[in-house]
Amino acid sequence: MENNTLNIEIQEKPAYSYPIIIGEEIDFFEYIKEFTKAKKILIVTNKTIFSLYENRIKSDNAYYVILEDGEEYKNIDTFKKIIDSAIENRFERRDCFAAFGGGVIGDVTGFAAASYLRGIDFIQIPTTLLAQVDSSVGGKVAINHEKGKNLIGAFYQPKAVLSDTNLLKTLDKRQLKTGLAEVLKYAFIEKSCCAELNYRFYDFLDAYSEKILKLDSVILKKLISICCTLKASVVEKDETEKGMRAVLNFGHTFAHAIENLTGYTKYTHGEAVAAGMIMAAKLALKLEMIERSYFVKINELINKYELLPDDLPDFNKDEFIEAMHLDKKADADKIRFILPDSEFSVKMVTDIDETLIKECIEI
Fold first, then answer.
1. Which residue segments constitute the domains of the chain, with CATH numbers given?
2. Which member of 86, 120, 293, 355 lies 3.0 to 4.6 Å from 91 by CB, making a disulfide possible if both were Cys?
3. 182 is a catalytic site residue
4. Would residue 140 show up in a list of annotated catalytic residues for this protein?
5. Mean pLDDT of the chain
6. What is the DSSP string of 250-314?
7. Sign of the C-alpha dihedral, residues 262, 246, 294, 317?
8. Which of 74, 159, 269, 282 is catalytic?
9. How much is the pLDDT for 1?
């Protein structure tokens, strides 16, 4: 099956534009050779992925950093481990790092690439649906701090994103669904990304839910292409989140507080985002920004894919609000929310009464 190619065209920095390759059984090293001048490649992955795909990432000019699996390892110690390996193996600026894994691997590898020698090429090879539709695209790279998610990071674009849909076939059901939460997010923000595209992505997700959950390769390629195109249309206009790019954060202000208060280990990012989108929709309903019929529509699609955690704790509301104030998206100590304002459209809202916010911290 032929690979699809999308191009991210960064308007402010044309030299930093790059392709997204979507296909099956992609020859990773052939593309690395095409898009970089690297003599050496530092492949960062985790134990689980390495055990599954060792043969696909073997190369005489490759070096490996194999990490533990989990969000809790997206930290300064992991960052240092990558940098230490690059120094030990005398990587030069013409060489490259390759992130072979999910969002955690992509984020920490990208941040290390942005920092090493003040910037070395890197390639994203996302192995999860979440990474293929969202985190590998757009150049956000970061590590977590104990006080908050992604508080230390940079905007640093890869040389290419290589999304192989066959890699998704080894995902367990929970990991597949954590990616689907970000997929559904694009349906709810489609018009804010690029109204003229008019994918009617909500209808696509509603109609093809069974095939998507069964990882039908044709439907998956279409789904990933739509998500990446929608994200690209935003990133191209606003690389560093000065304005428009914030629409991609629908549900994330609540989600990051959920992750922070549960130590980044109890729920996947997608489970937190699914809950966060419900909370954000509830807040929009209370603010009379949307009709109840659309609130129901949001709930129906999220429930159709069974994305919500069934054991969300009864959070301390004051601690939850404090966690949202610490989020990197806060501005002048005001919590910024991306809320639906009509069907498949969102906008930024601040200065919301905290009593009203507290009423929405539940699903």
1. 4-167 (3.40.50.1970), 174-358 (1.20.1090.10)
2. 86
3. yes
4. yes
5. 93
6. TTHHHHHHHHHHTTTTSS-HHHHHHHHHHHHHHHHHHTTSS-HHHHHHHHHHHHHTT-S-S----
7. positive
8. 269
9. 59
